[in-house]
Amino acid sequence: MSTSTKPIAPKPISFSGIQSSGIPSLGNYIGAFKPFTAYPQTHKAYFCVVDHHAITVRQNPADLNENTYAIAAWFLASGLNPHACTLFIQSHVTQHTELGWILNTFTQMGELERMTQYKDKASRHSQNINAGLFTYPALMAADILLYNTQEVPVGDDQIQHIELCRDVATRFNNIYGDTFVLPKGVIPKAGARVKDLQDPTRKMSKSQPGPGTILLTESPAEAAKKIKRAQTDSLGEIRYDPANQPGIANLLEIMGGLTNRSPHTVAEEFAGQQYGSLKGAVAEAVAFTMEPLQAEYTRLMADKAELQRILARGAEDARSVAAQTLRKVKEKMGYVAE
Predict the structure, then answer these.
(1) Residue in 154, 125, 126 with CA at minimum distance from that of residue 140
(2) Residue spans in the chain of domains classed CATH 3.40.50.620
(3) Positive or negative, the Cα torsion across 204, 210, 49, 59?
(4) Are 294 and 216 in contact, with CB atoms under 8 Å apart?
(5) Per-residue pLDDT at 1
(6) Cα(140)–Cα(160) distance, rounded to whole angstroms?
(7) Which CATH architecture has domain 13-188+304-333?
(8) pLDDT, tens digit, 9 for 90 and up, residues 268-294
(9) How far is Cα 130 from Cα 125, in angstroms, rounded to an integer?
(10) Out of 3-17, 57-71, 307-321, which region has the weakest mean confidence (pLDDT)?
(11) Which of 10, 181, 269, 295 is the most exposed place for a label (fewest CB within 10 A)?
(12) CB of 111 within 8 A of CB of 164?
């Protein structure tokens, strides 16, 4: 009597990209680097250092080079296993820019004009409102669609770009038949958008660091000083209420993100205590996280040759999939094959 085994379902495909501009913040770690480490266990995961996106804002060449290595190192220092996923640099896979150009022709001007990130960057870089800054959502769509991506882990400020990606993919599919998988954006449960410690109405940004931003390269003592100065309120009650207590909610988000708990659970633990107790515990959790993280990052950055080997292997893996997708797109559109 023979027994049949149920076939194992393939892992869903995920894609994540981080720009190689500026030093990552604690918010980037909690909202991106840390949760990304779990994805290879459940997904066929692609992680990309998106250097083409970084140049929509003027970059110092030496800084761009160093920051590109640095983002890869932060991925790895956070615990990402390069043998269990694909880690690569965007510009090392030329299919990204080629498909990005093609998708420009399926993206409407009005759609791009509505992108809140474009409006924000254009207001901050009024002397350099370049075409790339305007059309980079089409390149972002290419980044995602090249790999038949099903899930894109993002902060809530990027959901608009995922919706545009879906619209562009649907437009192409309606004209040329089923080609692109329609991805969905997935927001981590805790710490999806860590806020600025001094202004908890805006996210903690690596592109606009200020006194309320904790950078991953800062010492635990520097981080603790910023946490102790974090804006709170005069209510004197620790509860998770982002609308009425954004500063306290932000501290709870940070604590929850670092200790794998929901902010509601953290709030219950500190109910009845003073704000100082919460700040002290958050500072301790940050120090506990940053010390080994920084040590591993320093080790990785001291061995650029090893980083290059990891990134070259990742680019080769990525190209094998990206080339197939681009070939299919060009065949459907009527391009002459090489």
Answers:
(1) 154
(2) 13-188+304-333
(3) positive
(4) yes
(5) 47
(6) 12
(7) 3-Layer(aba) Sandwich (3.40)
(8) 999 999 999 999 999 999 999 999 999
(9) 10
(10) 3-17
(11) 10
(12) yes
Where are the CATH 1.10.240.10 domain residues in the chain?
Answer: 220-299
Backbone angles phi, psi at 87, to 5 degrees: -115, 125
Question: CATH code for 220-299?
Answer: 1.10.240.10
Q: Which two tokens stand for residue 44?
A: 């066929």
DSSP string, 175-188: HH-S-S---EEE--
In the predicted model, is pLDDT for residue 67 greater than 90? Answer: yes
Q: In sequence order, what are the beta bridge partners of 16?
A: 47
User: Quick one: what percent of the chain has pLDDT higher than 90?
Assistant: 78
Q: What are phi and psi of 45, to 5 degrees?
A: -110, 135
**Which residues form the catalytic set?**
121, 203, 206
Q: List beta partners, residue 86.
A: 46
Strands 86-89 and 44-50: parallel
User: Which residue has tokens 């495909």?
Assistant: 13
Mark out the alpha helices in the chain (DSSP H runs).
Answer: 26-28, 34-36, 39-42, 51-54, 61-77, 95-104, 109-113, 116-124, 131-145, 159-176, 220-228, 246-259, 263-269, 275-301, 304-333
pLDDT, position 188: 64
Distance CA 34, CA 258 (A): 9
For residues 132 and 319, give the distance between their C-alpha atoms in angstroms, rounded to a whole number: 23
